[in-house]
Amino acid sequence: MNFKQKLEIIIKKNNSLLCIGLDPDLEKIPNFLLKKKDSIFEFNIEIIKKTHDLVCAYKPNIAFYEAYGLKGLSQLKKTVEYIKYYHPEIPIILDAKRADIGNASKMYAKSAFGYWNVDAITVNPYLGFDSIEPFLEYKDKGVIILCKTSNPGAKDFQDSYVSPGIHLGSGLNRTPREIVEPLYLNIARNVVEWDKKYKNCLMVIGATWPNDLKKIRKIAPNMYFLVPGIGAQKGEAEKAAKVGVNKDKSGIMFNVGRSIIYDPYPRKKASELKNIINRFR
Amino acid sequence: MNFKQKLEIIIKKNNSLLCIGLDPDLEKIPNFLLKKKDSIFEFNIEIIKKTHDLVCAYKPNIAFYEAYGLKGLSQLKKTVEYIKYYHPEIPIILDAKRADIGNASKMYAKSAFGYWNVDAITVNPYLGFDSIEPFLEYKDKGVIILCKTSNPGAKDFQDSYVSPGIHLGSGLNRTPREIVEPLYLNIARNVVEWDKKYKNCLMVIGATWPNDLKKIRKIAPNMYFLVPGIGAQKGEAEKAAKVGVNKDKSGIMFNVGRSIIYDPYPRKKASELKNIINRFR
Asked: What is the domain extent for residue A108?
């Protein structure tokens, strides 16, 4: 079973497009958990116990574990193992935004899909097709390419108007000095081409840019999108759900981290958000 | 003492612009070391013992440690501690190509400069200024921004002709639909602006693109560059050294990994490369 099949089964089973970001910050974790040995892992378990029937995926951002060094990372390992054991039907997305030149990207792919044993990973396209290919070669796994990120700085370079071109490691068909589209759209267009061969591409598009989301949906009518920014980042859930879905009213995951996991009632909050998304899709 | 001061002292002391990439691959490590418990760490120690008076920096690429999970990462920790203890004058660059939206980038910066305790880190600019700022705020540390990478895929997006703009989190002065320069040059121009405030920026430029290196040196006459691609990647050391140095015949580090660390005589090979670089700078 490949990543997309796994995702589609859980979306139907839980009737949910909600992905929860497991991004634990020791400064925000409740006191009673901080006293435990593996407080990050214990915190994650609490969230998973309360939400596993409301989600279509869990997405730990590895930055929040790396910050605590080997101790933090060992608790990510335990968290992944816990989900794989108790909820093997729920896909795990490692939010790592990795990419490097060929041989190092191979090592990152080996880490994500071998060691961490997750179902999908987020990757950064700046280094080009050959930096993403080592991930794509794991055909049963999902490769989620950053397209338009949810932060304000996404405008800095992703919005630059660029000359066109499709890049498949087989030469360039660029037309220099002719401007056609913003960089993020050119990347979306490339990802669509890559997906024709590998069939395991997804894209990250921030809910903070609903107009851009609409344009990308036009280019990639059937691709799954991972959409952050409807929670703490105050993205417009309603507008994003309306313009972001595919023709089957699916094809999208909304990631919410902080505004669920630090809510005093995470289950209630997750349920509310799941329903809001379902109402507008 | 900040990163650049530390770097300049060792460049003079060892009369070297050579940075060695500590990128251990268990498939290439000699058999007698594989039998040891911490074979990656033991391999690194061998290289460091043989080369510490020939280098201006060591650059472990974290991908090669992540591939082996917590066991690999614990040997990266030991390697950093070993260098800090026996050769505290040699800067350590964590090649991690990190970046994320604000709060996650803060966690990555905390990881690099807190937990890993390295002197500098490589970062990816695709997410914009606000994704790099959390690293820049560690003013004594070096922040090495990917500009033009050494791989063939660098052409895919980094060479796109773009509309201009300088981005400092304070609004855009972009002129849409006017094309001026390739994306990597626009990023270089932005990094020069960021450096005016933070004074701790460096850039990565592959030796595989000597003409681009020359253009970037024009824009950033005084900045330090990290230049990979003269070893296994067959970049042109001679041309890169000639066009890449600043007016003091310095301002550049040449990274070499595989072609030194897997050579049967790493010290001899490192010494040769150090001398070739010095001859042409």
From this structure: 3-280
